[in-house]
Structure formats: structure tokens, C-alpha cells
Please model this.
Amino acid sequence: MATAILDDLRRIVQILRESSRRAESEIGVTAAQLFVLRSLDGDKPLSVNDLGARTRTHQSTVSVVVKRLIERDLVRSSVSESDARRVDLALTRKGRALLRKAPLAAQDRLIDGLETLSARQSATLAKALHQWVEAMHLEAVTPQMFFEDGKAKKRSRRAAS
Model:
């Protein structure tokens, strides 16, 4: 049983790693950055909280990724017209152009797969994963977006040109 579980986990990590490498080599962004860009692709700007909900990530974690995308002029932030306390995030023209040539984000596949599970299956999986994390004493580890290490990434030569 442990081998089957680890093999499935290896498959998931492998597709995430391959997706990250592909995104970085083809368009010069990390898999997490690509996932955020795809999540912002829409008609309406999103708040950081809305983006966190869409990416199923805490707003503080997604903020780190957004900051890097703003620095690269792929995302813009502005004060909301409807609520001055809110910051709206949207793709820039450069961000939309990059997204048109981008590969799919593996995180979308993860979410799509999870959404095919019944509510009962999802609850069972969530409970089992949490128990596994507790058994490994990893509860205090802050969850990050996949393959986004919190350090500034160098752009690939291809993306810089």
C-alpha cells in the first residue's frame, strides 16, 4: 500500500516539476507565477483575497508571487474604483501576451482532478493527508505555491530577450 501511495505522489510531483521546468524554459516564469497569471486571466480585476481563493492559496503566499509579477510588468495593481480599501490586480498587455504562448499550468490539472472527487472522497483525502502531515510533524511548515521557493528567480535568457 505504501508503495502505491508513494508512486502516485511521485507522479504528481513529477508533473509539477516538469510543468515548472517547461514554464521557466519557454516563457521565463515559474509554475506558480504561470498559475497566478492564468488565474488573473479574465474580464474583471481580482483582489489579493479573491486571487488567493481562486488559486486555493493563502493571500500572503499569493502576494509574494504577485509582487514578482508586478516587478516584471506582467500584472498591474490599482486602487479599486468601487472600494478605495481594495487593491485590484489585473494582467498587463505584456502579461496577456506572455499567457497566449504559455504552456498549461499543472496546478490546473490538480484542481480539475480534485473537483472530480465526490464530497465524501474529498473529505476522506483531506483528512488522510492532514493525518499524514501530522505524523511527519510538518504542521508548522508554511505551505507555499508549488515550486515557488520564496527567493527571487532569475529570468531565463530566452525570456529576457
